[in-house]
Amino acid sequence: MPGRPVTIGATVAPAAPGSGIPTGSVTFDPGDGTPPVTAPLTAGSASITHTYAGTSGSPYTITAVYSGDADFTPSTGTDTQTVGRAATTTAVVSAPDPSSIGQSVTLTATVASVSPGAGTPTGTVTFSFGDGTPTVTAPLSGGVATIAHTYTTKTGSPFPITATYNGDTNFSASSGTDTQTVNKTATTTSAVSSPNPSLVSDPVTVSATVSPVAPGTGTPTGTVTLAITDRTPQVVTLVNGTASATFSPLPKGTLTVTANYNGDVNYATSSASIIQTVTPGQA
């Protein structure tokens, strides 16, 4: 496999009826375009260590050329070396984890060769987010691929994340998994009443607006419970993040107005309160 040292050896022997032990050197050509290497014969044998950088051209033709000496003529031998793709591992992590609805999450995949293989894998990694959205493929740079993804719901959390390395000429495919937890997004609720102050005879409209807290995004849904002191609360459905209700008549005095957002699948509850001042109307 690429990056794994290979020992190439040659044995030189006299052809019958000759005898003795050849001396001199052997020149090895690994067959991958790298320069030949010459090694001395010791007791009729010579060897070198060579590392193939890739699989393109495998199986490689190895040639060993004995240069001859004063008593023995030159000779040549050949063999082949098959270099397969190196195995890999893929690890994937997400951050931040946990995250909120609408918050950007960074997914990072790291692909490495498995020993005794060596080198840096190239190619692409395909990310699956586990939320039903389409997969996304990103290029490796220095063995690392990174993308950003935004989860729009917490239904299904924790989501299974998969990063699949697609392999290249020298490195085989592999995959890694992780999970991403998506929590409800925090919200803020604001309330206003109009008119304020008012007369006891005035209809007073209470409006509530519910918004996600950054880095969360989106529009909360569900209902808001609107209430004024000594009056029956009204549960109103949010429309584009806003709900309103009218209360009439109201008792005179300083009244408390409350707006309680009841939350939904993706957004957490929140509340707000203000003061409504009511003065007597004309007799």
As a whole number of angstroms, the C-alpha radius of gyration is 38 Å
Report, as a whole number of angstroms, the end-to-end distance: 99 Å
Query: What's the CATH topology name of the largest domain?
Result: Immunoglobulin-like
Integer tally of domains? 3
Helix count, per DSSP?
0
* Shape verdict: rod-shaped
CATH C-level class of the largest domain is: Mainly Beta
Name the CATH superfamily classification of the largest domain: Macroglobulin (MG2) domain
Strand content: over 45%
The level of helicity is under 10%
* CATH architectural type of the largest domain: Sandwich
Let me know the number of strands: 23
Q: Main sheet: which strands, in order across?
A: 17-23-22-19-20
Contiguous uncertain segments of 5+ residues? none
Task: Name the helix and strand elements from N-terminus to C-terminus, one letter apiece.
Answer: EEEEEEEEEEEEEEEEEEEEEEE
Structural class, please? mainly beta
Q: Largest sheet at a glance?
A: 5 strands, mixed
Overall pLDDT score: 95
